[in-house]
Design goal:
This protein has 470 residues and is an alpha+beta fold. It has helices spanning 6-17, 21-40, 78-84, 105-132, 202-212, 214-217, 247-252, 257-265, 280-287, 314-318, 323-332, 341-355, 363-371, 377-381, 385-392, 396-412, 446-465; strands at residues 45-51, 56-66, 75-77, 93-97, 138-147, 150-154, 159-162, 178-189, 192-198, 221-229, 233-240, 270-275, 295-299, 304-309, 335-340, 426-430. It starts with 5 loop residues before the first helix and ends in a 5-residue tail after the last helix.
Length: 470
């Protein structure tokens, strides 16, 4: 079977589509193998070989040598087998070349379709491998058209998809516009590799800074986490391994040139650059800037920060429509509750007044109980004498007297057990949508964390102890 143009086709396909010659040859062999099975019987055993020297595809049919032929497709008698190979014996398998297969036009068309399919599959695999390697990187292409609201981006060898939800609000791309985006994922589908892009991901912001700031590229400065509300505001936390280099100043650049280039790419998105700190309280204060923070209480198990601010700092801490506290929560990875110091003082004042209904509880004792989390007579009545001794630093006899006075007052119905519920103490709350865009570096040990948390609580209690109860 002579295919005079076959060698040329193999060479052209390999060169134009970037597919290796071996893959194309394998596709041709597989195609004619399938065609042979259909023409000569699917129960037979066949082999197709491409002969590079003369450009032929040779097809061999394998038959078992037997004395009496039962199925001529898979068997041959010894007499005829000897004519092909004098050394053959009963039980051997003989490969017989089909000299003239007489393929019809339909057979050739079937082979062609299989070859094209195999080549397309190989193309898809090559594209998938190439772009899979570029995941989590910036990529640039040209907007071509819209399909079901999605922007199809020409990357040269392939098309990528930029979904509408991944476009910065207010952006409007026209065919022919240049698009720079973050390659989030490459997935293989029935139609080939699907390349997904994003311009709203916090990692897009991170990668833009990596381009603009050489110190980030060489590892001198590290971006620890990033948070965005696309098109409006973003925060990034940076740290320098070189004490002589200011990470914030390096990211801002001379006269703000570096950060301005990023802002321009993000359609005017305001960017806050925050200095990262391993001390969570220090980092949280920076993340909530420009608000001035009075105090922070850290709940390690719940990953919650209770942030206390003055009344005039509430609006700054919360931000427009809660934006500042949301971004800070995303940046730190902690849920953040914003509490007004005035409201907190009022709450502790009322808690102390509730406890003062007990005759043996003095003003000082009431404050000490409140600082220890005893907020009402109901809480006090549930305590053990030993616990009360530790809190108030009194004798066991005095502790038992306070508890007895409490129980007597409750039985007589002379006291209000709990503080009346009023307005919500928390002015704003935000839960992180993710644990920061980049979380590198070593985590603190559990012991270190417990130490930090207890220290923060101690400082908060000292602050609360200074509150004046009127």
């Amino acid at each position: 079977m002579n295919f005079s143009e076959l060698a040329k086709v193999i060479e052209v396909v390999g060169k134009d589509r970037g597919i290796s010659k071996e893959i194309v040859v394998d596709a041709i062999e597989q195609a004619f193998l399938v065609t042979a099975r259909k023409k000569f019987g699917i129960q037979g055993e066949y082999e197709a070989r491409y002969n590079e020297e003369d450009g032929d595809v040779e097809i061999y049919q394998y038959k078992n040598v037997v004395e009496v032929v039962g199925d001529p497709i898979i068997e041959i008698d010894l007499e005829n087998a000897k004519k092909l190979d004098a050394d053959v014996e009963i039980g051997d398998q003989l490969g017989i070349r089909i000299e003239n297969p007489n393929f019809t036009r339909v057979d050739v068309q079937t082979a062609r379709q299989i070859i094209f399919q195999k080549v397309r599959d190989a193309e898809r695999e090559i594209l998938f491998a190439e772009f899979k390697h570029r995941e989590k990187q910036l990529i640039t292409g040209i907007a071509r058209r819209y399909e079901r609201g999605r922007i199809m981006v020409d990357l040269g060898k392939a098309e990528a998809v930029l979904p509408q939800r991944e476009v910065i609000p207010g952006e409007n791309f026209k065919p022919g516009d240049r698009i720079q985006a973050y390659l989030t994922e490459v997935v293989m589908t029935n139609r080939g590799p699907e390349i997904l892009l994003s311009r709203t991901s916090p990692m897009f912001l991170v990668k833009l800074f990596e381009i603009e700031v050489p110190e980030i590229q060489d590892g001198t400065i590290e971006i620890k986490s990033a948070a965005r509300e696309p098109g409006q505001r973003a925060k990034i936390a940076v740290i320098s391994v070189d004490k002589d280099i200011d990470p914030v100043g390096a990211c801002v650049g001379m006269k703000g040139s570096r950060v301005q280039n990023v802002v321009n790419e993000l359609q005017g998105e305001k960017i806050d650059i925050v200095r990262y700190s391993d001390d969570l309280e220090t980092f949280a204060r920076a993340a909530l800037a420009p608000a001035e923070i009075e105090n922070i209480m850290i709940e390690g198990e719940d990953k919650t920060l209770d942030v206390i601010v003055e009344e005039d700092q509430l609006a700054l801490a919360i931000g427009r429509r809660g934006q500042n506290v949301r971004l800070a929560a995303m940046l730190t990875g902690f849920k953040i509750n914003i509490l007004s110091k005035t409201k907190l003082q009022e709450k502790f004042k009322k808690a102390a007044e509730n406890l003062l209904q007990i005759v043996s509880v003095t003003d000082t004792k009431a404050q000490m109980l409140v600082q220890s989390g005893v907020q009402s007579i109901g809480d006090l009545s549930a305590l053990e004498a030993e616990t009360l001794v530790d809190i108030l630093e009194i004798t066991e006899e005095d502790a038992k007297k306070i508890l007895q006075d409490t129980l007597d007052a409750i039985e007589k119905g002379e006291v209000q057990l709990d503080v009346a519920e009023e307005e919500e103490l928390i002015s704003a709350s935000a839960v992180p949508a993710y644990q920061g865009a980049i979380k590198k570096g070593n985590e603190d040990s559990e012991d270190d964390e417990k130490g930090k948390f207890s220290e923060a609580e101690r400082r908060l209690r000292e602050e609360l102890a200074a509150f004046k109860l009127k």
